[in-house]
Amino acid sequence: MNQPPHHAPNVQLRTSPHLRVSPPVNVIMRNVVYALLPVCVFSVYQFGISVLALLIVATGACVLTEHLVCRLSKRETSSINDWSATITGLLLGLTLPPGFPLWMAAVAGFAGIALGKMFFGGLGYNVMNPALVGRAFAQAAFTVPITTWVPYMSPGRFTQFIPSTLTPPFLKPTPIGDWLTQVAPDGFSGATPLALMKFEQISTDSVQLLLGTTAGSAGETSALLILLCGLYLVARRMMNWQITFSVLLVAFLTSGLFYLIDPQAYPDPLFTLTTGGLMLGAVFMATDMVASPVTPRGVWIYGGMIGFVTVIIRLFGGLNEGVMYAILLANACSPLISAVTQPRIYGAKKPKAAG
After folding, report:
1. Which value, to the nearest 10 degrees, does the dihedral of the CA atoms of residues 305, 310, 311, 314 take?
2. Model confidence over 135-159: pLDDT tens digits?
3. Are 53 and 154 in the same domain?
4. Which residue range(s) make up the domain with 176?
5. Where are the alpha helices (DSSP H) in 156-294?
6. Is the backbone of residue 44 left (phi > 0), alpha (psi -120 to 50) or beta?
């Protein structure tokens, strides 16, 4: 009897290393957007339609800028479908004051994408986090509006804009003094918890800082919510938790050392972790896959550098916040950190010094 031919299974033999395929870039970026959405919703709940408009304008400016630059340089515009420009716009909007004029947010979005990303070649080539490049440009160009704060949970925040939001282009922002008198009759100092601590030695309740019931940038107030959103990305294995952990650990230890030296002059470590943009920066900005190191030791050095520099600027610099500059400085040092922390090939000997 004839036997049917035996078909061997199609086995592919390959040399090591056998790497698990990572999710595509657009999937990772889309999940980062998902993680940012609760922060955006909470910021709109806190500050109203002005923040909603701010996020829409900043994101729209980033996406439109990338599209136009791609068209002008005769490149494929499919890069805007990878969600990276959307992330840049959302993060930029979240780092700005709630009443920041919309036209200024659009200019900052243009600067972040054009100067911080497309100038270097687009996604995968940017040296620094584009959202922070846009934020740094806004800090240099619009010094007064970017340090003007408004109270949280003001009545009428869902029915009327903060007056400065709709300021026409190239004009000084509309004064908000009369508006503040109406929405905060008991008085509003116009200072964030960081500013109150640095310049007046006034502390803020830890529960308020964790829950976000304070003044500040649109998306930096609720440290607990930001941390929970970051845990979602960690659970999906779409964020390098070592960077975030090292940023927070070194910031905690550095501020704790100064607090032990003089508790009256320096804030406690928990205050340091839960105020300003440290949590937002540590979770969503320092972890930029392009602008951060790729070596195992490098990510710890990189994160530690951000945490240390942030605390030093806060305590001894002229500004009450230092997260943005700390991350941008670490971004610039990232290639060097990766180079000096490259693991040695097994069996290889260190090259002897010449001479």
Report:
1. 160
2. 999 999 999 999 888 888 888 889 9
3. yes
4. 25-148+150-188
5. 177-183, 193-200, 206-211, 223-235, 241-261, 269-274, 278-280
6. alpha
